[in-house]
Design brief:
alpha/beta, Rossmann fold, 2-enoyl-CoA Hydratase, Chain A, domain 1, 48% helix, N-(1-d-carboxylethyl)-l-norvaline Dehydrogenase, domain 2, 695 residues
Length: 695
């Protein structure tokens, strides 16, 4: 049986039609590249052809590179060869755009003489999200079409824009109403009839001439905080700036140079790992193939506090009516006020339209009665983090919720099975751990209990998609994936204070490593009283001879709970954190009380002491089957804890260093610091076998 043809060729009314047939997204693989060149060769030499149209078959134009080619040596013809062939055409070439024209697909379209598209499509250059920059002329051609400022916004963000917007900017010449191919053929015939000269983007220099260099300086300053540590965004800016300074052929060479620099960077591998891991996390081994998620058309949230309100916003944003339940009318009024204020802030910033806010607010209603939520398809409990309270709430839900409703708990640490034991339907009970602030953070850590049904699991994993969250499925244990690993990270950060560091040194070292915020600034932001309450509740479980840092407890005893009280590990003027002599004095006292001689500690040791516990505990979590795969752990830390995307997550980062080297360092810490550093069996096995997490 012959291989399917990746690009078909036909002639209609003197116009050659090259249709890309590489489902599902018409990725720009080798066969497609060769097929476009072959089709153009044929059209150029066919006396009966006056112009050519390139169009995507199925649901899209070209949605980017072929992921099957990632990590493999490139094969000819290369994409620049395709673009050179388009530019060498002696007849007009029209790109017909629907679905998405992304990455190399948009670079193909930009090289064509004209572009038409349906209003519903999108165009964009998302390469920066994979640690790259557009490497086949995108940074040189797009500024010539839309100007450097718009090109910077598109290329540095990597976000697509609608075809309608692209048409307003001049990147699309005509919006087609009706059948795209008919519209593209009509446009091509019009170009031929009017004898328009072939228009090459490479010759369009007006928008890249006499450009104020301040545009680029200002743009670099504007992304300084967000793009800190990344390579790709900065090279994108460099390349667009070059488009305003050099002839296009020289610019294309520089672009290619930057592209290969990014390709060789470990960041590219890390960001591609993150890209694929996000998609892999939705695949749950062992779920029956025919299992169907329950439709979620209505929801309820218990608890009108910060977390409950944020969760309710998620449902409303997804167009799902949601009832917010709290026994206190005062709490309900306050919670609804916070929700409205959050939406109003988004409107004021321009990230949300007033109509969208009004629509969302209408979807949120409030009640004090459990009976009023009984018909919801899912209820998410977000009450006080105490087992007795949770079990009492679930006992009430068991009585009022309709059969088959999903009973979800937002607990961040508590036993799902014990919570489920207070109901007669444990198959419907599951953890849905939203991260704070719930209306902002993208991670949804779903936690299966021992009796959670496949249907319930499939439902909450699908819910993540509905709510535009990144979902990961975890097993049931204390802290699940994220918070269980976090314990060792915070423990070592606090031990480092007793051994020689101050909070600002630890935070700085970890923020330079790439974390969004160091542990002490993060603690102050979240509120130190939360962890203090949990530690006090578990104090009776801690062995008396186990090392324990009292620094945070002493701060809390002084009423220093962080930003909300104006002081924690730092003192605050507004949100500005400053070192505090009081904190230094407490730390020095604790060092003395513990009999610890303080010493100079390097930033490298700080990073290893705080990051390697994540890796070691992650290995134990894998070993126990709490996480399905190492990449799921990475996703939890990338989207829930501010781990730098350009490092790929703690487990991927450890593989890049070498598990043997990580193990050697952990063994060294084990000798010095004792049982907390006992290496995980899986880490030892993989490291000694010279393998990664997958074996």
């Amino acid at each position: 049986m012959s291989e399917p043809v990746a690009v078909t060729y036909a002639v209609r009314d003197g116009i050659a039609v090259l249709t890309i047939e590489n489902p599902p997204v018409n990725a720009l693989g080798q066969a497609v590249r060769a097929g476009i060149i072959a089709g153009l060769d044929k059209a150029d030499t066919d006396a009966g052809v006056q112009a050519a149209v390139i169009i995507g078959g199925g649901r899209t134009f070209i949605a980017g590179a072929d992921i099957k080619e990632f990590g493999k040596p490139p094969t000819q013809p290369y994409l620049p060869d395709v673009l050179k062939r388009i530019e060498a055409m002696t007849k007009p070439v029209v790109a017909a755009l629907h679905g998405t024209a992304l990455g190399g697909g948009f670079e193909v379209a930009l090289t064509c003489h004209w572009r038409v598209g349906v209003e519903s499509g999108q165009v964009g250059l998302p390469e920066v999200k994979l640690g790259l920059l557009p490497g086949s002329g995108g940074t040189q051609r797009l500024p010539r079409v839309v100007g450097p400022k718009v090109a910077l916004d598109m290329i540095v963000s990597g976000n697509p824009i609608p075809n309608k917007k692209a048409a307003e900017l001049g990147a699309i010449d005509e919006i087609v109403n009706g059948d795209l191919l008919d519209g593209a053929l009509a446009f091509a015939k019009k170009v031929v009839a009017e004898k328009r000269p072939l228009r090459l983007v490479r010759d369009m220099n007006d928008k890249v001439s006499n450009v104020d260099p301040a545009i680029f300086a200002d743009y670099r300053k504007s992304i300084e905080k967000k793009a800190k540590g990344f390579l790709g965004p900065w090279r994108c800016i460099d390349a667009v700036e070059i488009a305003t300074k050099l002839p296009i052929d020289e610019g294309l060479l520089k672009e290619r140079e930057f592209f290969f620099e990014c390709m060789a960077s470990p960041q590219r591998a890390a960001q591609i790992h993150a890209f694929f891991s996000e998609r892999e996390a939705t695949k749950i081994p062992g779920l029956p193939e025919d299992v169907q998620p329950k439709p979620i058309k209505s929801a309820a949230v218990l608890g009108a506090g910060t977390m409950g309100g944020g969760i309710a916003m998620n449902f409303a944003n997804a167009g799902i009516p949601v009832k917010l339940l709290d026994v206190s009318q005062e709490a309900l009024s306050r919670g609804l006020g916070v929700i409205e204020k959050n939406y109003a802030t988004s409107v004021a910033r321009g990230s949300m339209k007033q109509e969208a806010m009004d629509r969302a607010m209408k979807l949120i209603s409030a009640t004090q009665r459990f009976e009023d939520i009984g018909d919801a398809d899912i209820v998410v409990e977000a009450v006080f983090e105490e087992m007795g309270v949770k079990k009492d709430v679930f006992g009430k839900l068991d009585k009022v919720m309709k059969p088959g409703a999903v009973l979800a708990t937002n607990t961040s640490t508590l036993d799902i099975d014990e919570i489920a034991s207070s109901t007669k339907r444990p198959q419907d009970v599951i953890g849905t751990h939203f991260f704070s602030p719930a209306n902002v953070m993208k991670l949804l850590e779903n936690v299966r209990g021992s009796k959670s049904s496949p249907e319930t699991i499939a439902t909450v994993m699908g819910l993540g998609k509905q709510l535009k969250k990144v979902s990961v499925l975890a097993g049931n244990c204390d802290g699940f994936i994220g918070n269980r690993m976090l314990h060792g990270y915070l423990r070592e950060a606090n031990f480092l204070l007793e051994e020689g560091c101050m909070p600002e040194q630890v935070d700085r070292a970890l923020e330079e490593f790439g974390l969004a915020m160091g542990p002490f600034r993060m603690g102050d932001l979240a509120g130190l009283d939360v962890g203090w309450r949990i530690r006090k509740g578990k104090a009776h479980l801690r062995p008396k001879d186990e090392r324990y840092s009292k620094v945070a407890d002493r701060l809390c005893e002084l009423g220093r709970f962080g930003q909300k009280t104006g002081a924690g590990f730092y003192k605050y003027e507004g949100r500005d954190a400053r070192p505090d002599p009081v904190v230094k004095e407490i730390i020095l006292e604790e060092s003395k009380a513990q009999g610890i001689e303080r010493r100079e500690i390097s930033d490298e040791e700080i990073v290893q002491r705080c990051m390697y516990p994540l890796v070691n505990e992650g290995a134990k979590i894998l070993e126990e089957g709490i996480a399905i795969r190492s990449s799921d752990i990475d996703i939890v830390y990338l989207f829930g804890y501010g781990f730098p995307v350009y490092r790929g997550g703690p487990m991927f980062w450890a593989e890049q260093i070498g598990l043997d080297k990580v193990l050697a360092t952990i063994r060294g810490f084990h000798k010095i610091h004792g049982k907390f550093w006992e290496p995980a069996k899986l880490l030892v096995q993989r490291a000694e076998a010279g393998k990664g997490w997958k074996g």
